[in-house]
Amino acid sequence: MLSISKMVAQIDAFVWGPVMLVLLVGTGVLLTVRCNFLTWRNLPWALKKTLSKEARTKSRGTGDVSPFSALTTALAATIGTGNIVGVATAMVSGGAGALVWMWISACFGLSSKFSECMLAIKYREVNEKGEMSGGPMYTMKKGLKNKKLGAVLGWLFALFAVIASFGIGNMTQGNSIATSVHATFGVSVTMVGVVITVLALLIIIGGIKTISKVSSVVVPVMAIFYVAAGIIVILGNIHNLPAGIAMIFKMAFSVKAVGGALCGNIVASMMNAARYGVARGCFSNEAGMGSAAITAAAATTDNPVRQAYINMTGTFWDTIVVCTITGLAIASSGVLGQIDPSTGQLYVGSALTIAAFSTVLGKAGGYLVTIGIALFAFSTILGWEYHGEKAFEYLMGTHKWNMIYRIVFSLVVYTGATQTLELVWNFSDIANALMAIPNLICMILMSGEIAKDVKEFQKIKS
């Protein structure tokens, strides 16, 4: 008889297997082609708009928060432990070449992120409280021609989003903060649990406006802080960088399993690199999962396509910028594939990233990575609360229970911080995949409408 945890682990491996990854990347390829590559061609324009003063105001159209705040709240949920721990895990399991496949999945993920956000804004509603409510569940209910199919897909998406919000968006993040702070600074997990629970409660009670205010400050600051530290590490190991980059591309496209001077004991083939790179890339930037679309629907905008371009840049910032910094820091450090003296095993996860940063920054490298994990994970808790709340509101048919959800969600953070969570990790991973399936089906069915709206906006773009 299989134990529950082993059974859940097997289901997790299946739902995140080749079929799911082909569906995620394949949907991105389809949308990119149908939109005539406009999501790629307009990326520089979208980045310029994101960083403009206008994006920080609510001067154009209707909504609850500014375009920039909607992006940073979505980024709060996506820039998380995946950018530090996930990249390291992918490079150990799939070799250094996994980084290239993260980039490839992100390029097509731009179109998926754009499409789900555009549809969410187009089909959003105003609730009885006067707040915006939107996301893939509303798109499915109102946008799909087959109303029965739309109602079923919308309900399933909302259900899995609520489950995922408590797992991947809450307990696993609280656990990452508590274990990393305890390991580096020796603070008890109970104390860390109490502190992050109280902080989460204080911010979350205020709803989207408070969450977006905190996110619009914390997310840019933490990203700049982490990227700056990563660049220092890369520059400190600059003599290894050309060999590191050569190894990354060699391992990404080699049919036979290969290693490299900077890879230690790690040998991997193209298939392995693709599998882990795409899986961790999709997991990190959440393109195609539909979660970011819920936050995008709160943005103040006069055109769904305009805001979708701004939200689309989240995939660029998350994977092309932050994940790349982690990957290059590891590849140039010489610690990939080396043995961790404290465990006698290969460096993996956060220990690998800490070891890479420590090659230049010494003990401070460990402190910086730990602080990065804590900030990234805490911001994920805030962003995911809003995703889960809106999905919960959809299931209940009213906003009146939202405050109860906020309080329960905040208190669950403590449970995550103080318990061992292998089962929760796997279970929430499954919920994440099950969220993506109805969203991807919806985008494929509505790809013609997405392409039409994109091409129409191109004529009035300003």
Automatic annotation (TrEMBL):
Predominant localisation class: membrane
Family: Belongs to the alanine or glycine:cation symporter (AGCS) (TC 2.A.25) family.
Keywords attached to this entry: Cell membrane, Membrane, Symport, Transmembrane, Transmembrane helix, Transport
Membrane-topology annotation of the record: Multi-pass membrane protein
Originating species: Anaerobutyricum hallii
Transmembrane stretches, start-end: 13-33, 68-92, 98-121, 149-169, 181-205, 217-238, 244-268, 316-339, 364-384, 404-424
Cellular component GO terms, alphabetical: plasma membrane
Pfam families reported for this sequence: Na_Ala_symp
InterPro entries per record: Na/Ala_symport
UniProt-recorded Gene Ontology molecular function terms: amino acid:sodium symporter activity
Domain of life: Bacteria
Lipid metabolism listed as a keyword: no
Protein name: Sodium:alanine symporter family
Protein location: Cell membrane
